[in-house]
Amino acid sequence: MSELMDRPLERPVWRRPRVVLGLAMCGGLALAAGLGIVLAAGARASLRAPAASLTIETARPGVFHDFVALRAKVVPKDIVYLDALEGGQVEQVLAQAGDEVRAGQPLVRFRNTELELEVLDREGRLAESITQLQAYEKQLEDARVANQKAAAQIDYDITRLSRDAHRDDVLNAKGYVPRQQYEATHDELDHNRRLQPLQASIDREEEVLRRRQLPQIHSELANLQQSLGVARSKLDNLVLRAPVAGKLADMHLDVGEIKNRGERLGQIVPETGYKVEARIDEFYLDRVRPGQTGQVEVNGRELPVRVVRVDPQVKDATFLAELAFDGPMPRDVTSGEALDGRLVLGGDRQALILPAGPFLERSGGDWAMVLDGSGHKAVKRRIRIGRRNAEQVEVLSGLEPGERVITSDYTGYDKIDQVIITH
After folding, report:
1. Fold (CATH) for 68-77+273-344
2. How many CB atoms lie under 10 A from the CB of residue 148?
């Protein structure tokens, strides 16, 4: 009984010293981790930048001028390309780039012995075919003439024999004509009378055949003559001629060089004037339309232009717009000349304006670094912009009048929440 009463009491596991120490350490680590998370949540990724390296502008109410700057180039309104129709070895160069040429003027003469032999052979075979058809046509005509002669001869013989038979009838009644002569005349007359319908039938059949075959012969002759003309034109194509009048450009040929059929040789710029081509930032693709007007500067004076075509294909973040001079064609412009100008997209209106800057390229106008009241720190803020041009940005929300914004390049700012400005 005493042994049962003297049994030692064991401590609970959670009250043992080692367990208590472990739980205390875990609690401390959890507290430290929570504190770190709280401190990290309140921290901002910062970047220090000297004020001299930054461009800072102020958002102000003003008039937004809705236009896009143009960097344009003068190009010919029309271009006629010159290609080698047959090709061969350059035998003679009759005009050079920069020359004014007239329509039909010879520009280059080629030599192509193989083509010449081929054309001669084809001409011989075509001429033989033409001769055969013409001979067959002559045979049909000769047969027609022969049939007409035969019919005429039968008619003549019937007329003559009818007259002789009538005379013999009278004389035979008086016994003046021998019986043999009388019968011969009547037999020959009967024979020709039987031949007359046979000859008429032959004439009709051959005339039907002739009328059916002559158009085919004439059509075939026309095709052969056309083929003969095409064959001969191949030799004519060895001389390249100007299709239109204008200024010859981009043609640089030397005697003796070989040019293949279809190869580009140069171009002619007709005297139809010039147009203006401008590559515009893709941001404005939905806002540029045919009919919009603008101005370009030509030798110190502004000339009106008008959009005539917009190519929607984007290349290198730009698209192509073609503009025409809206008025008399200036005479002092040259092909390839660079022009500056602006294209009006819409009317002017009051808005909160921020000067444009490189910051738009990195932020896309979705955010900006806005200075606080001290001017020593700029914090990233979401903004929304509307229209923009080369000089101005229309701010729709996110900024207040008088607030200052860093508008210089934002390279490296993507993961930065604030900029500390140092002096």
Report:
1. Elongation Factor Tu (Ef-tu); domain 3 (2.40.30)
2. 13
